[in-house]
């Protein structure tokens, strides 16, 4: 061997900081030794690389590569090579080191070795960079993992490429140096698959890490949390046919991301009887959810940054969740509450609408229905509130109803209803606020009372109260609006089943 310009690696005296500062924050913080790669003048050892075939039966050596290497450079960049050069080689073999790899690893390893000298890659395509990344993980070169992660983050992401990233070995995905790419890939899924219902078939084929990212997102757009619960069961049944494996993956990885307080009561009952859920966990989350739904005093303080309380954080549901109290005596009665944040209401402008989840009384299903629209008389925008009813067939039932909204400064519910005018299948309550009698404004309280009655005649109907807030859109939504308390509009409807 030609006399080397680098001293032979000695683990007792070697300090990598004298050669390379491999900073965790910056993988490019060292000199370029590319000129020394595979040059005997700057090498102290010979590396023999045995390349095996991919056959699973009897893999054989297809070729051997020999490289001149500098052990101080490689040891400074990789704990793997540090151990390799300090494992007590016999004196007759101290100038030779050996690696054994599969043929599919050859290109990635060669590019990795060049990187360890020059801190640059000559490949730029995603598949080639991934090969280097896998090699860097195998041979513990953290600076190269960071470098590859940066390159991949700067390449255009597609559902296919992200699927590859998140399907890499767990040792890569969990590596600190790979975390920025993992987070970027998960965020791509969160944005791309925001509408879970639209892409359900695609999401069913995603790996666990991708599904976790999607169902953990606060921005997920679904009709209700029932959709997320049903999807978790469906995905787990597709991916894990064995029920024991399925129960384990739901319990340890997926169940914690479901927002149980925003599921319907029917599906909450399903959680209790589902044999794929841990019984104790099911009882705990369903009990919490029912308590939350019945808590109309808003005692629950939701910390959106807390992992423990995150299941109480409301998503951007298409069907707005409600809370309710149900009474059986002296007559069957429902008191239903719906809270709307100011930004949710503001999103309705100039012409938008949304509905609540359904609530049932006397076999009939009711919904809150909110609309921003233009009043034809004044040409001004208003916030209009409806109570939609899906009636039970051939049932001539009678209900009393009452709309209400909390207002400042008393925060008591302001009751509003009005005389009815029948137009086809719609009962309109469009009397302006100022026409009601019996108003009282004492100590900041608002009290306007007028009861309404609804008779079921079969089909689907709407009870409308257009002027519940008695002011145009700009006054209703403004920062000084008396109806938004701490940025939340609190609505209530009371339904009493008469006969």
Characterise this structure.
- The protein is of the alpha+beta class.
- 31% of the residues lie in helices and 22% in strands.
- Strands 4, 7, 8, 9, 10, 13, 14 and 16 form an eight-stranded mixed sheet that branches. Strands 5, 6, 11, 12, 15, 17 and 18 form a seven-stranded antiparallel sheet that branches. A three-stranded mixed sheet has the order 2-1-3.
- Helix 3 packs across helix 4, helix 5 packs parallel to helix 8 and helix 6 packs across helix 8.
- The radius of gyration is 33 Å and the shape is elongated.
- Oligomer class: single chain
Q: Please give the largest β-sheet.
A: 8 strands, mixed
Distance from first to last alpha carbon = 103 Å
| Broad structural category | alpha+beta
Q: What best-fitting shape do the alpha-carbon axes yield?
A: elongated
Q: Could you estimate the helical fraction of the residues in percent?
A: 25-40%
Radius of gyration: 33 Å
Strand segment tally: 18
Mean pLDDT: 81
Q: Catalogue the unreliable spans.
A: 20-29, 417-450
The share of residues in extended strands comes to: 15-25%
Treating each run of at least 4 consecutive H or I residues as one helix, how many helices?
Answer: 16
Give the secondary structure arrangement, pairings included.
Layout: E1 45-52, E2 61-69, H1 71-77, H2 79-84, E3 96-102, H3 106-118, H4 126-138, H5 142-154, H6 159-166, H7 170-173, H8 179-192, H9 200-203, H10 208-216, H11 225-239, H12 243-254, H13 265-273, H14 279-294, E4 319-320, E5 323-327, E6 333-341, H15 342-346, E7 352-356, E8 359-361, E9 364-374, E10 381-390, E11 398-406, E12 413-416, E13 421-423, E14 426-429, E15 452-455, E16 460-465, H16 473-477, E17 484-485, E18 488-497
Parallel strand pairs: 1-3, 4-7, 14-16
Antiparallel strand pairs: 1-2, 5-6, 6-18, 7-9, 8-9, 9-10, 10-16, 11-12, 11-15, 11-18, 13-14, 17-18
Helix pairs in contact: 3-4, 4-5, 5-8, 6-8, 8-10, 11-12, 13-14
């Amino acid at each position: 061997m030609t006399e080397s310009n680098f001293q032979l690696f000695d683990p007792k005296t070697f300090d990598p900081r004298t050669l390379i500062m491999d900073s965790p924050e910056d993988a490019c913080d060292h000199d370029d030794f590319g000129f020394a790669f595979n040059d005997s003048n700057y090498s102290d050892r010979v590396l023999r690389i045995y390349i095996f075939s991919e056959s699973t039966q009897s893999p054989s050596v297809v070729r051997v590569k020999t490289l001149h290497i500098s052990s101080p450079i490689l040891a400074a960049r990789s704990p793997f090579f540090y151990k390799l050069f300090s494992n007590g080689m016999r004196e007759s073999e101290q100038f030779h080191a050996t690696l054994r790899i599969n043929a599919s690893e050859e290109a990635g390893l060669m590019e990795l070795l060049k990187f360890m000298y020059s801190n640059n890659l000559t490949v730029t395509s995603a598949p080639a960079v991934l090969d280097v990344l896998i090699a860097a993980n195998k041979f513990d070169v953290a600076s190269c993992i960071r470098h590859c992660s940066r390159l991949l983050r700067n390449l255009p992401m597609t559902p296919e490429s992200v699927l590859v990233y998140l399907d890499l070995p767990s040792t890569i995905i969990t590596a600190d140096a790979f975390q920025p790419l993992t987070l970027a890939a998960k965020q791509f899924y969160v944005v791309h698959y925001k509408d879970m219902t639209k892409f359900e078939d695609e999401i069913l084929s995603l790996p666990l890490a991708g599904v976790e990212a999607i169902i953990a997102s606060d921005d997920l757009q679904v009709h209700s949390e029932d959709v997320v619960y049903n999807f978790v069961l469906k995905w787990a049944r597709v991916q894990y046919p064995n029920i024991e494996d399925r129960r384990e993956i739901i319990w340890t990885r997926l169940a914690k991301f479901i927002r149980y307080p925003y599921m319907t009561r029917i599906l909450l009952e399903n959680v209790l009887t589902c044999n794929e859920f841990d019984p104790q966990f099911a009882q705990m989350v369903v009990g919490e959810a029912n308590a939350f739904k019945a808590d109309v005093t808003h005692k629950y303080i939701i910390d959106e940054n807390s992992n423990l309380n995150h299941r109480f954080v409301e998503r951007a549901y298409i069907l707005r969740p409600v809370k309710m109290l149900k009474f059986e005596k002296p007559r069957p009665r429902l008191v239903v509450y719906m809270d709307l944040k100011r930004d949710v209401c503001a999103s309705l402008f100039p012409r938008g609408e949304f509905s609540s989840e359904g609530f049932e009384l006397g076999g009939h299903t009711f919904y809150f229905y909110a609309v921003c629209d233009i009043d034809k008389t004044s040409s001004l925008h208003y916030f209009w509130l409806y109570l939609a009813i899906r009636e039970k067939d051939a049932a001539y039932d009678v209900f009393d109803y009452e709309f209400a909204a909390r207002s400042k400064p008393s925060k008591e519910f302001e009751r509003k209803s009005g005389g009815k005018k029948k137009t086809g299948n719609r009962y309109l309550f469009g009397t302006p606020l100022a026409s009601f009698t019996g108003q009282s404004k004492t100590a900041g309280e608002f009290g306007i009372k007028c009861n309404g009655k609804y008779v079921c005649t079969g089909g689907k109907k709407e009870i409308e109260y257009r002027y519940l807030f008695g002011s145009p859109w700009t006054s209703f939504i403004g920062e000084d609006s008396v109806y938004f308390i701490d940025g939340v509009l609190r609505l209530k409807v009371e339904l009493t089943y008469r006969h």
